[in-house]
Amino acid sequence: MTKQFFSAVSKVAIAGCCAVLLMTSCKKDEPSAVSSVTLDETSLLLYVGQTHDFVATVLPSDASNKAVSWASSDPSVASVSESGELKALQVGESTVTVTTLEGEFTATCEVMVLEPMVPVESVTIEPTSITLMLRETKQLTATVYPEDATVKDIEWSSSHPEVAEVTIDGQIVPVSVGQSVITATSSQGGKSATCVVTVDAKQYTVEFETNGGTPVASQSVTMGEKATAPETTKVAEGGLSAGLYPGVQDPEQASYLFGGWYSDPEFTTLYDFESPVNGNLKLYAKWENVEMIDLSSAAGSNNAVKAMNYLNGLADLAAPTAYTLILDGEVWSKLTLNKANVELYIVGKDKECGIQSSWDDRVVVSTAGHLFLGNNIYVKATGDKASQTVLLDGGNLTMLPGSKIKDCDVTSISNSKFWPVSARTIVYLNNANSVFTLAGGEIVNNKLHCTAEDYMAGTICINNGKVVIESGKIADNTVTSDAPGIALCGGVYAPNAGSIDKTGGVIENNTATFTQTAIASGAEVRHVGQQMLFRAVSQYWEGTDPYKGAFKIDQNLSETDVVSTSDLSNPLWIRLNYKD
To answer: Cys-Cys link to 491, which of 53, 105, 312, 510 (CB 3.0-4.6 A)?
Structure first.
């Protein structure tokens, strides 16, 4: 009984489960309702004879009835089959509509039909090869065949755009020397043609007619580049005569002023070297005579003094202006320049010419402007002098190669003989704005002897200003003193306010000595430096001065010895106490 009961119960349970499963399965298999329909295209442009297979998508994806119908608003223009195949029949417009059978949802596509399409059969390009120079351009022409092809659009490309670029309309633009292939491709059908482009750099020749000047080699210039303005000089037999000239002149080499390069022999058009060269050129040098400045109305006993008076009497100059004074003999006169912005070059013609004196207290003076002593010029003073051979008191002086201050033999006696001064020296700087530059000149074999006590004595003394030694020589100068209480230096001496910068040049074999007369007096004997002396401070200025005493250099200084008063840590300097 029990067995039969459980068997019956099991049969009932199994039957119940099957009923539940059947109910569940039946519920999932119920069809989904259509909610919408879409087309793969919403607008089409076709040519007569073309076709298109529409794709209609019925949503949701599990809709049980995805059947649709097709219709064309103008079947004579475009017909559509039951499967969605569209055929373009004649020129015009039509709307294709797809409709779901369930729910009658619709989607549309606007169709425009054009004349029958003529396809592109080939493309040609003209020229098919070309050589271009840098900076040249060339327009290519592409032709589409047949002539009545419906779409004639061309796309351009370059195989090596770093050599030659091509614009959207087919213009070649060279970039660098080399070769590139330019291709024209039809946008319909992909037909193409090519042009081989070789880019070269054309060279032009620029010749120079110097018209008597030193010859100038012709230049080979790439088209579009610039020629370089060359230098040339024109020399007349005998060079320049002695006198005053505008500009910087070499008496042996310059008899004409260069007036520029012209593109025509009549000198009507000055050539612009900033312009590109686009053809062969011949340029012509223009020359103008160097006119000597007329000094006939200037005061003075000789042309050198007249030149100084002429320059000093000029109206104020807005910018530095150069002049050249050419001497052909000795000048026994004091020369003074006191005009700002005047740059005066003094040179000798053919031989050494001296500016000297045996009676005036100073030979060369510059209170303004800039004096340049050039080739074949020397300065010399002899006799009893109260002060200095060369004085810079606001102006500058540069000694160039071939210039000398030499063989001075000066005995400086009482400082009241000519003028109350505090320095006995060959070259004296007395103004903070003054700069003395040794740039190849020489200060040699000078003798200075002092007989009266004073502040300082030396070959070069700087009360105020700066000495710059770039090249040249300060050598074999002798300074002696019979009087104690004076600082001596055989070379360059700078007290408190002066400075020295030596980057080159030679300072050697200079001597500074107190005589037995000075030593026998028993009075104070101050600092002595053979080659250089800086800041010789007396005991009365000692105070809290960190550099009380002085710094000297006794050893010879070569071209490579660099020394400056701004760097007292240089081991070339020897420190002295004020009593040394």
So the answer is: 510
